[in-house]
Design a protein that fits this description.
It is a single-pass type I membrane protein. It contains 2 helices and 9 strands; from the N terminus they run E-E-E-E-E-E-E-E-E-H-H. It is of the alpha+beta class and 200 residues long. It has a domain of 111 residues: Sandwich (Jelly Rolls).
């Protein structure tokens, strides 16, 4: 996931990432400051930083840390579900003029383990193959976790659909019984009315 968004001074912006359990998430970001005179986003001023907060689906805070104008954060998900990643600048009116905006470039990678190419080149070919195999096995485990998580979501959705269908069926039965009861009551009331008026 690579994107950028704008925030104001001390404003908090959050994104939601649906992440499987036991998955490494690595995020890289860079903050740029709007320059009124040049009408462009410039590299951020020294002292400008970002509070990064990550919350699990249960509301547990997995990460809460102040970083600089450019940085990398990482966390591991313990539960599958929607994780909330929030950004807020630590800027004051001394660091950023009032009303100015910041642009945040964000790149989030879920479940990726990066190869250290320099370490691979320094080793012989057998070790290189071993390192690449380990990397491939990690990627296979990540794909397996993703598939398990999708199966869990599909099963949960199927159960919810079945419960809704069952509720609709019972509601239809109740409506039918009410209609039959009202019909019988109307027939009896009309019959009693005609008898009392001696029309039958």
């Amino acid at each position: 996931l690579a994107l950028y968004f704008h925030i104001g001074e001390r404003e908090e912006k959050c994104i939601i990432e649906d992440i499987p359990s036991d998955t490494l998430v690595v995020g890289n970001y860079k903050v740029q400051r709007w320059n009124i005179h040049q009408h462009d986003f410039l590299e951020s001023a020294p002292g400008l930083g970002m509070f990064v907060t990550v919350t699990s689906p249960t509301g547990e805070v997995l990460l809460s840390k102040l970083y600089g104008p450019q940085g990398t954060f990482s966390f591991t998900s313990y539960l599958s579900g929607e994780h909330i990643i929030c950004f807020q600048s630590n800027s004051t009116r001394f660091a950023v003029t009032a009303g100015s905006k910041l642009r945040i470039h964000l790149d989030i990678r879920v479940g990726e383990h990066f190869l250290d190419e320099s370490a691979i080149q320094a080793k012989d070919k057998v070790n290189e193959v071993n390192v690449r195999l380990e990397h491939l096995i990690e990627q296979i485990h990540h794909v397996t976790r993703e598939q398990d998580y999708e199966r869990e979501r599909e099963e949960k959705f199927r159960k919810t659909s079945e419960e809704n269908n069952s509720n609709i069926l019972w509601w239809a039965i109740v409506q039918t019984l009410i209609l039959i009861s009202v019909g019988i009551w109307q027939i009896k009331s009309l019959r009693d009315f005609f008898i009392s008026k001696k029309l039958v």
